[in-house]
Amino acid sequence: MAKLFHKSFFSMNKSIGIDLGTANTLAYYKQKEKIVLNEPSVVAVDRVTKKVLAAGKEAKEMLGKTPDNIIAIRPLKEGVIADYDVTEQMLNHFIKKVFGKFNIFLPEVMICVPIEVTGVEKRAVLEATLAAGVKRAYIIEEARAAALGAGIDISAPEGSMIVDIGGGSTDIAVISLGGTVVSRSIRTAGNNFDEDIIKYVKKKHNLLIGDRTAEQIKIKIGAALPLEQEEVMDIKGRDLLTGLPKTIVINSNEVLEAIEDSLMVIVNIVKQVLEKTPPELAADIVDKGIVMTGGGSMIRHFTKLMSNNTQLPVTLADNPLESVVLGAGIALDMADVLRRLEKAER
Ligand SMILES: Nc1ncnc2c1ncn2[C@@H]1O[C@H](COP(=O)(O)OP(=O)(O)OP(=O)(O)O)[C@@H](O)[C@H]1O
């Protein structure tokens, strides 16, 4: 009996790490030791009643295809909350999905934000999380979470550099002894490559394509350096001259030409962070190299482009799309040791 009580008592403890991303929201359930949610950060809302009709995958399917009375919204832009109410409802929907609708024991949550968000933006994330039905919420910067999730010992007395390229923001940090020593966050990341492709195809081929097509092009034939063997892809869109649907062929060199400037914006910011890094820590980075993570870093040969431009070894984390959420999960156990964690509770 005592044993039973013991077990059920501890099963009351529920804690999750959440990567509330511009593109995707992931949740890691600490007690189950696994990622239990991985859904696009999209919500479908009834235009009249403002009721949330669907969130995640189901809502993403509706993007660009909804009838007039339904709008599909991405409530985060460039890594921060753009629509507070919808973000809260989306989090509420996801938290219910993880814990069930009748959840008496409210969970504890570690949630991530980009490095340079303002105090107001951080507060908005904390409040939206609490309002979504949690007992206590902590905030950790994405870069520190990404480093933890990529297996870096961030409490070590040595410098590590992490470059986390998400959908809406890129966070670059040099971390030592658990704290961030030098950092930058910019709002150029994976989704900018999609926008670049849309603009390029419009200008060069007079073809209007949607966000999803642009993302598919980037993932399928995108590369940060010219490919040895050029790749091609058929793409469909609307011809701007005739107004009719049309298919064209695009090649990997054109995609590189389209995204090149945005890739170099990120590379140059990494160089600026390196220039500001104290010499002792810079020496560590020369030995250990830079770790890249986040979906935006998965473009082929991006690590090579970074390495060519910084003259440093650069590696891609094992699970680039999951590092942040895994790190948030690890950070739940380190809430007392990690410096500068903001928290809010009911
Ligand atoms: N195989 C791939 N190749 C290139 N880009 C990819 C690939 N897979 C995903 N992406 C891109 O990665 C981005 C999403 O990455 P991620 O899920 O790490 O970001 P996020 O956490 O949602 O965003 P943020 O951290 O900025 O809020 C999107 O732009 C997506 O198109």
UniProtKB/TrEMBL annotation:
Predominant location category: cytoplasm
Keywords: ATP-binding, Cell shape, Cytoplasm, Nucleotide-binding
Gene3D superfamilies documented for this protein: 3.30.420.40
Single GO MF annotation: ATP binding
Keyword ATP-binding: yes
Pfam families named among the record's database cross-references: MreB_Mbl
One GO CC term on file: cytoplasm
Family membership noted in the UniProt record: Belongs to the FtsA/MreB family.
Protein name: Cell shape-determining protein MreB
Species annotation: Haliovirga abyssi
Upper taxonomic lineage: Bacteria, Fusobacteriati, Fusobacteriota, Fusobacteriia, Fusobacteriales
